[in-house]
Amino acid sequence: GSAYRSRGGERARRARGTRRRRSTRPGRPEAVTFPPAASALADADWPPDPLRDPEYYRGVLPRRVAAYLLDAMIVATIVLVLWLASAMLAVMTLGLLWPLHALIVPFGVALAYHILQVGSAAAGTLGMRLFGLRVWSVLGGPPTLGQAAIHAACFYGSVGVTGGLVLLVALFNSRARTAHDFLAGLVVLREV
Question: What is the distance, to the nearest Å, from the Cα of residue 164 to the centroid of all Cα atoms in its chain?
Fold first, then answer.
């Protein structure tokens, strides 16, 4: 564990997007960073253990539901604005740009919204961030765009096919991970 040791002051940690937490295991340094550096993953302390660090998982499921509802409203607003803009363009061009109207697909907007935000440095959609959630790779660090794409495609695909029943997977594991979290190699944690 030397990779867990703090490297710099509080300002540097904030710039890296990490948080301090106290270690409860004997033999560990008192101050550690969260999330750990990728080189520290050999210690198998990532993702945090729900029994040792329950604060990262407490209330994650209701927060995820609330975050999704907010994100759905944001996506609906984006689709509505795009639809109105394309309708105005179609009218102004006397119907010449009406084919653009057909390109506004709510599913595509939702996928782009999810992928571009989860795969960014923010590591979460606007709804997730508002409710204090962040998405992390099980290997440590924020997710890649590829992981975000798998996450979004599996979410929308599985929820569409099963009518949301697939989300019940989160009730049967200690880290509250859904099926699309497992498939993308991600975990959703509370910011503590």
Answer: 18
